[in-house]
Design goal:
Helix content: 40-55%
Structural class: alpha+beta
CATH topology of the largest domain: Ribosomal Protein S4 Delta 41, Chain A, domain 1
Shape: globular
Strand content: 5-15%
CATH superfamily of the largest domain: Ribosomal protein S4/S9, N-terminal domain
Number of helices: 9
Number of strands: 5
Radius of gyration: 18 Å
Mean pLDDT: 85
Order of helices and strands: HHHHHHHEEEHEEH
Low-confidence stretches: none
Largest sheet: 5 strands, antiparallel
CATH class of the largest domain: Mainly Alpha
Number of domains: 2
Length: 201
């Protein structure tokens, strides 16, 4: 699956969840897209349910198929619960952390900021959205980019909700990755066990 660039509301309706943030279309049309969206739906097979959950996770985090498979392999090798390890690895991505810190309003916007070299990690410019952060890493807005309208606008409406694995310093426009997130603190509604079952087939 290539990175999705189509209508966001269609994906939200497909999964009946606000995948890319608040969706007016989902409230107006709370049924799947397409001409058969309102009709009686066939009972999903076990495989279909598992595949749907994997696709949902990929859309939420903006990860391609091969990247996702590689992350799952890494999660399995780490020991412990593979599904939880997978979500922790997804949350540890640089683009996701830029979004969580409120520097960007969406993960897609966060990805653009990283690609266009507006973000630094430990003082060095990093333009790889999939860069995996380690405990203690400092994520900051590049000095030249601190007045960028997209960043200041996002920070001005920054969600008051704090994530316990991140610290934010508003004066420095910098955040710190202080620990790996615990599963129960990750707000995404993903049933990671279904993804593990799918890859275990």
């Amino acid at each position: 699956m290539a990175r999705y660039t189509g209508p966001k509301s269609k994906i939200s309706r497909k999964f009946n969840e606000e995948i890319f943030g608040p969706s007016k279309a989902l409230k107006k049309k709370a049924y799947p897209p397409g001409q058969h969206g309102r009709g009686r739906r066939k009972k999903q097979s076990e495989y279909s349910i598992q595949l749907t959950e994997k696709q949902k996770a990929k859309y939420i985090y903006g990860v391609l198929e091969k990247q996702f498979a590689n992350l799952f392999e890494k999660a399995q090798r780490k020991g412990g619960i593979a599904g939880e390890n997978l979500l922790i690895l997804l949350e540890s991505r640089l683009d996701n952390t830029v979004y969580r810190l409120g520097i960007a309003p969406t993960r897609r916007a966060a990805r653009q900021l990283v690609l266009h070299k507006h973000i630094t990690v430990n003082g060095n410019i990093v333009n790889i959205p999939s860069y995996s952060l380690k405990v203690g890493d400092v994520i900051a807005v590049r000095e030249k980019s601190k007045s960028l309208e997209a960043i200041t606008a996002s920070l001005s409406v920054r969600n008051a909700r704090q994530f316990s694995w991140l610290e934010w310093d508003a004066t420095e426009m910098a955040g710190k990755f202080i620990s790996a997130p615990q599963r129960d603190l990750i707000p995404e509604k993903i049933q990671e066990q279904l993804i593990v079952e799918l890859y275990s087939k």
